[in-house]
Amino acid sequence: MAGKPLPAPRKDEGETPPTAAESAAEPDPISRDLAIFKIGHGERRDLTQLLDRVCSAGRFESALLSSEEGFSLAASSGAGDTDDLAASLARLAFAIDQAANKEGQAPTAFLIRDARDDLMLCRMFQLRGQRLFFTTRSRNSRTTSWDLDTVVPKIEEALEPGPAPDT
């Protein structure tokens, strides 16, 4: 009596995760798109335009740049009310810092998944002695903090003082 054949394993079952070399050889399309986009001429002055392009390249619903003190510094066009989010991120980062300090490690990112399975990913970085938060919202469950690592230098570049505008 022949039994039914076993179903093929799901793609994520029974397979070993790719090695770092394999991952580097075939980057995720989102990571690749975020890594290759360049800052446009006007984006040094218009952070909203830059964050809109980040959202487009990363397939994010919205993006927010905020300060450690809880102030919204810039947001993408679709970000909605950012003041409450910026203040909440500052409080949450403080709590995460307190927990992490017991382990002696400073966090660089945190991820929140809500009841709708949306992701909020926050990448923390220092610029000229000030701690800033770059936060995205996404429905893509494959988004990682490494995706944002490629964007932070572009934001830093946009925030660096440039030549004085022509008058």
TrEMBL record:
Domain of life: Bacteria
Stretches for region Disordered: 1-28
Listed Low complexity bias regions: 16-28
Protein's name according to its UniProt entry: Roadblock/LC7 domain-containing protein
Higher taxonomy: Bacteria, Pseudomonadati, Pseudomonadota, Alphaproteobacteria, Hyphomicrobiales
